[in-house]
Every structure is written in C-alpha cells, then in structure tokens.
C-alpha cells in the first residue's frame, strides 16, 4: 500500500503543487513584465542570482538530503512548500517519531512525519494569524534580553535539541559530525577558507553534512554502528 499506492500519489501531487508554487512565486515578476513592460537589466538579474546562489546555494543540495531521513517523501514536499523547516517542521517530525518509537527512515516514520508536519502547518497558520494581530505588540514590549534570545538563539537551540535526540542513538556518528563542524568552524574563523567566494559558511555546512554521511556509511558497512533498540523494532 505504501510503496505501490501512497508514494506514487504523493509524488504526483507533490510535483504539481511544487510547480504551482514556483509559478506563483514568479507570477508578480511575470505580470510586471507582461502587463507593464518592466524588467530589470540582465546584469542586475545575473548579479542578484549569483549573490543568492553563493550565499544559499549549498542549502539547495544539503537541506533536502540532510532533512529527508526525518521528513520522508510526503513531509519533504509539505515542509519545503510551507517553509519554517529547521525551526518547526523538522522538530515536529523528529518529536513525533521519538514519541511513537519508530525507526527513522522507515515507512512508519514517514507516515508519522506526514501527520506531524500536517498538524504543524495547520497550527502554525492559526498561530501566525493570531500572532500577526495580537503578539507583535507583546514582542515589542519584551526586555531586550528576551528579544535577543528569541531572535538569535532560538534556531540554534532547536538544532541542538535535535542533535542531542539523534546523537543519543548514534553517539559515534554524532561525535564525528560535531568534530567536523568544530574543525571547519575553526578554519573559517582563522581565515583558512578565505580563498572561497563570498563568506564561506556554506563550506562548513557542506563538509559537516556530507562528511558525516560518508563516515556513517563507512561505519555501517563495517558493522561499527547499528540501529538502536533493534530487537524492539523487530
């Protein structure tokens, strides 16, 4: 049922809705060109794309690959369409899988992730509506310390919690990932990555993510790691 009917259905509508989102995203720019004849110079378009690609280009590859094991196929479509992946969709999916004691990467985990992300989208939409009306003034009234904590440290705290959750099950892989991230961050701060274009924070992300994946695969092939609670899963 999952492989033969559910996933093909999800892929069909996921591709359609994603392409619709792309069309709607470019809709205003196309309308300005078609109706009013307004279009930026070619050099400005290329320069803008280049600046965005240098800054966020690594995320176009890293995020789908690194988030997929937790999100699953349906969750990936929904998360990238609705946004707020790192600070909302991913934690919700991970928490739901943890509470239901399913193994990440399995069809069961994908179903749980789908339900959790769908629920988070509905709740998020309602809360955003309330927040846009009522909570803006409350946030402005908070002390500067609380504002700084929410603006600067909320996302790192969420990622830290997710790292701790999965690192508990795979401590060896977590240690390698943390070591790679620390080494790359140190190289960045010392200026050894200055030969790369723009601010090379993307190099830290790419090396940490793909380095950890390759290390985990190497350890898996040599039976150095195994799924937690394998007996219970069986």
Helices and strands, with pairings:
Blueprint: H1 2-36, H2 42-82, H3 85-100, H4 107-141, H5 144-152, H6 154-169, H7 171-190, H8 201-221, H9 230-233
Helix pairs in contact: 1-2, 2-3, 2-4, 2-8, 3-4, 3-6, 6-7, 7-8
Please, could you describe this protein's structure?
This protein is mostly helical. Helices cover 84% and strands 0% of the residues. The protein is built from nine helices and no strands. The protein has helices at 2-36, 42-82, 85-100, 107-141, 144-152, 154-169, 171-190, 201-221, 230-233. The longest helix has 41 residues, at 42-82. The protein is globular and about 65 Å long. It starts with a helix and ends with a helix. 15% of the residues are buried.
Q: What labels would you give this structure?
A:
mainly alpha, about 230 residues, globular
Short synopsis of the structure:
By secondary structure, the protein is mostly helical. The protein contains nine helices and no strands.
Strand fraction: under 5%
Largest sheet: none
Mean pLDDT: 84
Anisotropy-based shape: globular
Helix and strand sequence = HHHHHHHHH
Rounded to an integer in angstroms, the radius of gyration calculated over CA atoms is 21 Å
Number of H/I helices: 9
* Broad structural category: mainly alpha
Measured as a percent range, the helix fraction is over 70%
Tell how many strands the DSSP assignment holds.
0
End-to-end gap? 20 Å
């Amino acid at each position: 049922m999952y492989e033969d009917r559910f996933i093909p259905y999800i892929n069909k509508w996921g591709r359609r809705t994603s392409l619709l989102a792309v069309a709607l995203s470019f809709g205003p720019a196309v309308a300005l060109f078609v109706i009013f004849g307004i279009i930026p110079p070619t050099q400005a378009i290329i320069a803008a794309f280049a600046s965005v690609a240098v800054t966020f280009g690594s995320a176009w590859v890293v995020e789908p690959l690194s988030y997929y094991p937790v999100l699953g196929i349906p969750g990936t479509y929904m998360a990238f369409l609705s946004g707020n992946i790192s600070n909302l969709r991913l934690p919700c999916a991970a928490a739901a899988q943890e509470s239901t004691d399913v193994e990440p990467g399995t069809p069961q985990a994908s179903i749980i992730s789908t339900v959790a992300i769908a629920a988070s989208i509905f709740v998020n939409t309602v809360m955003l509506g309330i927040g846009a009306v009522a909570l803006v003034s409350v946030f402005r009234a908070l002390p500067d310390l609380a504002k700084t904590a929410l603006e600067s440290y909320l996302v790192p705290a969420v990622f830290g919690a997710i790292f701790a959750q999965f690192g508990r099950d795979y401590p060896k892989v977590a240690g390698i990932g943390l070591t790679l991230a620390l080494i790359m961050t140190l190289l960045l701060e010392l200026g050894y990555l200055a030969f790369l274009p723009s601010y090379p924070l993307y190099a830290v992300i790419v090396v940490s993510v793909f380095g950890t994946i390759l290390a985990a695969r190497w350890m898996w092939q040599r039976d150095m790691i195994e799924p937690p609670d394998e007996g219970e899963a069986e």
